[in-house]
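Sample entry (216 residues):
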Amino acid sequence: MPQQSLRKKLFVNRDIQGKILGRLVKYWIFYHLAIWHVLFVVDFFQQRILGTVEGVPPLGLRELYVNFALAHWGILVISVALFPVIFRDMLRVTHQVAGPLVRFRNALRQLAAGQAVEKIKLRESDLLMEFQDAFNEFLDSERQRHGQHAKAGDQQAAAVQNRAHGGDRPVEETEQQRQAFGHGYWRITWRFDGLPSVAQWRYLPATRHRRYNGKR
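Predicted structure, serialized as tokens:
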């Protein structure tokens, strides 16, 4: 039966999740710095234009920046308050990708080591469901292929064993026949092309066998 994942940690792979979340933090900081300073530039030109029209002496850049920060501090508070929520959600999303990939990687390592691997069943919230089906189909095909190889190996071993037993049997039978019926010889009839045509076992009684061997 497929084993369902029981992952409890959200951060399971540093290479995948760490890079994605690190890139998220960089983009988050860059985005808010860009928005903050774009708003400051707009406020700066508004203050310059307003001071020119009303004849108010312009403030210095530092004073304008401090006044802008005091006027828009709520943006920073909201950004900082929302960042943990977004980061947590992105951690869950990356876990739905990295978790299945880690399971596939571990299963492939077990296959490479010659260990038994069960079918993978991902959680309902996980992504890469199509990889789960493809991987399980691969496992089925591998098991079927190994089963066919094992069956063929057993058949070959049985054939070799039968040939071995079959080679011993005529020797035993010939020895039994020699003890029971005496001795004999093979009589081969040759064809005109030099190839044997008929091979017959010719029985020799014990007396003729002794005479044939030079014994009286």
